[in-house]
Amino acid sequence: MGLTDPRVALDDASSVDSASPVPVSVRPHPRAVPPPEAPGGLEGPLVDRYGRVHDDLRISVTDRCNLRCVYCMPESGMTFLPRAELLTFEEIARLGRVAHALGVTSVRLTGGEPLMRRNLVDLVGRLADVGFADLSLTTNATLLAPLARPLAEAGLSRVNVSCDSLRPERFAAIRRRGELATVLAAMDAAEAAGLAPLKVNVVLLRGENDDEVLDFARFARETGRVVRFIEFMPLDASGDWERDRLVPGAEVAALIDAHYPLVPLGGPHAAPAERFAFADGQGEVGFISSVTQPFCGTCNRLRLTADGAIRNCLFSDDELSVRDVMRAGGSDEAVADVLRAAVGAKHPGHAINEPGFLAPRRSMSMIGG
Ligand code: SAM
Ligand code: SF4
After folding, report:
1. Who contacts 323 (Cβ-Cβ below 8 Å, separation ≥6)?
2. Model confidence pLDDT, tens digit, residues 40-76
3. Which of 51, 160, 224, 265 is most buried by a 10 A CB count?
4. Rounded to whole angstroms, how far apart are CA atoms 11 and 35?
């Protein structure tokens, strides 16, 4: 099996996939310095200077992937973290316990492709034992079908599956590897295993798959799966992002609404995916319009990269290494201080729409989307 086979799992080797590597990890991470007013200890909640409570943690378990989606990674030339730099399952679970003590209720595992990390079921079990209200996984689903039941039995609540086209040839063109049929079968397997409600992430690219909006709306209505349209963000490793290539969420919503009337769904979890139900009650769609309608004002997220950096924003290069603290023998309180410091340093919003915006050094698959 070569790397072009999406079934191959490669989490245990430092690898270079071909010539001209794309630079990755930013090391060493800056030292964590808790703000003087930080309370210390293992008490939450994690509230930033703008009153935003952080209760949602994205954990990247690997930066590797078996696909090469055009909006995420170049066809060749990616380099990946050496295994020694990855957090171990013990370290991730420890961070999870500290985050839970500080008020984090929701965890999502991501990557890279999280199912490329060997024994992920074991990690899911460890995190489920911590007692999060919601424990989910974002995946390209090429490796999901046989793992769906073990993951559910280990305590996973639900999955988000990325699928950018319902047409096999186009799916292959956008994701470059893997097959649509495998992904659709995995969605069935996930639901059969009780991993529901299932969400389907669709990145729309102008002129490439934006003629499938209504197909996806019908798919949502027919299957009950929540289709979420994501704007192309300047986080591709190739640096090919152009504003003209993204399809604004408002445009997509208007198109769907004209054919299948939508009603907004409110509630505390309305952001960041602006949620809408079909007015006739047959299903739901969502819009993650991070570029045209940033939802920073209600952002409740922290991210942990596969090599143990805490990031408080997808679009900021600010990171604090929790791995260094743990490997230097730091206490749980010291780990908590890193989380507090990251939250304390959070900016009010990202600057994508400001002149001079520079894409962050780490791309989506290196941060964890
Ligand atoms: N590999 C898994 C997957 O594809 O679902 C999880 C990681 S992936 C980075 C998480 C999500 O980010 C996916 O839904 C993917 O489509 C999305 N994504 C990746 N690059 C993106 C970009 N440049 N702009 C917007 N979304 C992106
Ligand atoms: Fe891999 Fe997900 Fe990036 Fe596609 S979007 S290349 S599946 S990490």
Report:
1. 29, 85, 87, 91, 307, 308, 309
2. 689 889 999 989 999 999 999 999 999 999 999 999 9
3. 160
4. 36
Q: How far is the CA of 34 from the centre of ligand 1 (A)?
A: 31
Assess contact for 171 and 202: CB atoms under 8 A.
no
> Which uninterrupted H or E stretch holds 159?
strand 158-162
Query: Cα(first)–Cα(last) distance of the chain, in Å?
Result: 27
Mutate which of 66, 162, 164, 364 for ligand 2? The one with the most ligand atoms within 8 Å of its CB, which is 162
Are 202 and 228 in contact, with CB atoms under 8 Å apart?
A: yes
> For residues 349 and 298, what is the distance between their CA atoms, to the nearest angstrom?
10
11-17 contacts: CB < 8 A, separation 24 or more?
A: 11/62, 11/64, 11/83, 11/86, 11/116, 11/117, 11/118, 12/83, 12/118, 13/83, 14/80, 14/81, 14/82, 14/83, 15/64, 15/79, 15/80, 16/79, 16/80, 17/76, 17/77, 17/78, 17/79, 17/80
User: Using 50, 70 and 90 to split pLDDT, how confident is the model at 271?
Assistant: low
Rounded to two decimals, the pTM is: 0.90
Does residue 17 or residue 258 have the better pLDDT? Answer: 258
Q: For atom 2 of ligand 1, which residue has the closest CA?
A: 139
Q: Are 212 and 168 in contact (CB under 8 A)?
A: no
Taking the centre of ligand 2 as the mean of its atom positions, its distance from the CA of residue 57, in whole angstroms, is 19
Nearest CA to ligand 2 atom 8: 112
Q: How far is the CA of 64 from the centre of ligand 2 (A)?
A: 9
**Does 25 contact ligand 1 (Cβ within 6 A)?**
no
Domains of the chain, earliest start first: 52-367 (3.20.20.70)
Buried b vs exposed e over 263-279: b needs ≥16 C-beta within 10 Å?
eeeeeeeebbbbbbbbe
Q: Which atom of ligand 1 is nearest to the CA of 65?
A: 1
Cα four-point dihedral sign 295, 296, 301, 305: positive
Q: For residue 183, give the DSSP letter.
A: H
306 lines ligand 1 (CB under 6 A): no
Is any ligand 1 atom within 6 A of the Cβ of residue 217? no
